[in-house]
Design goal:
This protein has about 90 residues and is mainly beta. It has a single domain, classed as Immunoglobulin-like (Sandwich), CATH 2.60.40. β4 and β5 form a beta hairpin.
């Protein structure tokens, strides 16, 4: 799959797959990313803002990857300007 799905975009390149997930207001240290059984999981809790009676937004989800084509152990994650960027390397055939 490639293209836009809600707040997630997936693009495949020759040596890797890039995934972009919008996570406004989330700092890199507040997001957890892990892999299991052909899925990449992510979860984050935004900061509470008591002044505005705001409990912080929760982000979470999973993205399916083909474990025969992509290296789930090599996933790299980075949060930049409210966007979670995931890079998943392709396995060498």
């Amino acid at each position: 799959m490639t293209g836009e799905v809600g707040s997630c975009r997936i693009d495949k390149a020759e040596n890797e797959c890039y995934m972009r997930v919008d996570v406004p207001g989330i700092a890199e240290e507040d997001i957890k990313v892990w892999t299991d059984s052909g899925f990449i999981f992510f979860h984050a809790q935004g900061s509470d803002l008591p002044k505005y009676n705001y409990k912080g937004r929760v982000f979470g989800g999973s993205i399916s990857i083909n474990p025969e084509r992509f290296d789930s152990n090599g996933v790299k994650a980075e949060v930049k300007n409210g966007v979670l960027w995931l890079l998943v390397p392709r396995l060498k055939n």
